[in-house]
Specification:
The complex is a heterodimer of chains A (207) and B (254). Chain A has 207 residues and is α+β, with helices and mostly antiparallel strands. Chain A has helices at residues 2-29, 57-61, 96-99, 190-194, and strands at residues 43-49, 52-53, 62-77, 80-93, 104-116, 118-119, 124-141, 144-163, 169-181, 196-206. In chain B, a hairpin with a 2-residue loop joins strand 12 (219-230) and strand 13 (233-243). The chains are: A alpha+beta (207), B mainly beta (254). Chains A and B meet through helix 1, strand 3, strand 4, helix 3 and strand 7 of A and helix 1, strand 1, strand 3 and strand 4 of B.
Chain lengths: 207, 254
């Protein structure tokens, strides 16, 4: 959690450093050659259909239930966007012998990512992205906790944006996350609990 | 300038939304999410044949502020408990359960063919048992292999009554006993030298007690009982009882 906040705050500070850089260039040259542009902040909020695949606890002993995510564009450099955000995904435990007699496995993934915007049609862009973050895997039944695993997440995916108005877009996309939560167990099960492949389908809006 | 300030406030608002944490707290049984432990073993019948579709589960308890016996597998009323995992045996009688390690439990017990809320294949035709008193130090290399555990077909069941007479008054009718063998409703302690099956029905009189067990026919069981205290240490006597096809009444004069 601390790492996640640190990543997001660092990105936020980074953004504002670039904003100052932009202002300085404009003042000193007074020409319209801005290398780093500060676009309007774009804020995405989206619903997640959580999924998983592979030979791991998430795929073999859980079933995706629901989720939501948010991300914020911090800076843009040409068509590159630097985003920060988080995703929350909830799974129902389907095999108590592998995941415990627990109702839910919840994953919270705090991330930073670089996204590239590719115009396809007049109002449609395809945005591949790649990023890194910090994820918590928590198990709960109601409010009762059954422990947390945390570790680095490696993320990749793409969104397809469709502009409705100048400042409002709808989008859909696919996000893959390789989660590596800290795990102590017998060597033959270490990968099963410590290397999780998450595949989420997302739909949402961008403001 | 004001536009920049507005943009900054807007950004901060979004940042707060993004960073909003989901937190809660409680003081119930706690688990170590990073540590996954593996309980495995095999269930066979009295003829050493594997039994499939037998329910097996792990019961974890934590006593409340009133405390409780370390031996009993049931927590006190203020405590907390979980059937933390469950499964059924495969066609070769094997089972395997993996679950997060409890952090502050008072007891871990293995339920075999018990009719509990998570049971999906409880088999009333077979005996059941509980292995209790499992401690974290029993879990080696993140695992506990219970080996082969026997249960028996209740069609093959008879009754053993053990009566102990002339017990010293200071026992109040209670002494430690052990019964090793095929016993229905057996409660065994994982860490005692022999399997321990203790009485939950006695005592009946101050100087005598009798214990009734449902046992498999045609076996020898070993009955061990506390027969005194020497230099502050309990001493034990042991006797082998043959069980045939008929009920057995066995009398021990203390």
């Amino acid at each position: 959690m601390k790492k996640a906040v640190l990543i997001i705050v660092s990105l936020f500070v980074f953004t504002n450093l670039f904003a100052q850089e932009e202002e300085r260039v404009l003042d000193s040259t007074n020409v319209d050659k801005v290398k780093y542009q500060q676009f309007d902040e774009s804020f995405r909020i989206y619903y997640i259909f959580p999924g998983a695949f592979g030979d791991n606890m998430l795929a073999k002993a859980n079933e995706g239930k629901l989720g939501f995510g948010m991300s914020l564009s911090l800076i843009t450099i040409y068509n590159f966007y630097l985003n920060a955000g988080f995703e929350f995904s909830q799974y129902d435990v389907t095999d108590a012998s592998l995941a415990g007699n627990i109702e839910h496995t919840n994953i919270t993934n705090y991330f930073g990512e670089i996204m590239y915007k590719i115009p396809v049609y007049k109002k449609v862009t395809v945005n591949p992205k790649i990023g890194i973050g910090y994820a918590d895997v928590r198990q709960k039944t109601g409010s009762k906790k059954y422990g947390t695993q945390s570790g680095t997440s490696y993320n990749a995916g793409f969104n397809i944006d469709h502009s409705v108005t100048k400042s409002f877009m709808v989008f859909a996309g696919v996000n893959y996350s390789l989660l590596t939560p800290e795990t102590e167990t017998k060597s033959e099960y270490k990968s099963f609990y410590g290397t999780l492949h998450q595949l989420n389908i997302v739909v949402g809006i961008k403001l | 300038m004001s536009i920049k300030l507005y943009a900054m406030i807007k950004k901060l608002f979004y940042l707060v939304l993004v960073c909003f944490p989901l937190t809660s707290c409680d003081d119930r049984l706690d688990y170590i999410g990073t540590k996954k432990i593996v309980f495995e073993g095999r269930i066979v019948d009295e003829n050493n044949l594997p039994l499939d579709n037998i329910d097996v589960s792990v019961y974890v308890t934590k006593n409340g502020s009133t405390g409780g016996s370390w031996f009993m597998y049931v927590p006190d009323s203020r405590g907390d408990d979980d059937i933390i995992t469950y499964t059924t045996t495969d066609s070769n009688g094997y089972y395997r359960m993996i679950f997060p390690m409890p952090r502050d439990q008072d007891n871990i017990a293995l339920f075999i063919n018990q009719d509990v809320k998570t049971s999906t294949h409880y088999n009333p035709d077979y005996s059941n048992s509980i292995i209790t008193g499992i401690k974290p130090e029993n879990i080696i290399d993140y695992g506990l292999d219970s080996g082969e555990q026997k249960i028996f077909n209740l069609d093959n069941q008879t009754e053993l009554t053990v009566t102990i007479n002339n017990m010293p008054l200071y026992y109040y009718g209670y002494i430690d006993i052990e019964l090793a063998g095929l016993v229905n409703n057996g409660i065994y302690d994982y860490n005692l030298p022999a399997h321990f099956n203790y009485d939950i029905t006695g005592p009946y009189e101050d100087t005598s007690a009798h214990y009734v067990f449902k046992v498999a026919k045609n076996q020898d069981v070993v009955f061990t009982y506390n027969n005194g205290i020497i230099n502050g240490v309990s001493s034990y006597a042991q006797t082998t009882i043959h069980i045939g096809n008929e009920p057995v009444n066995y009398i021990i004069e203390y």
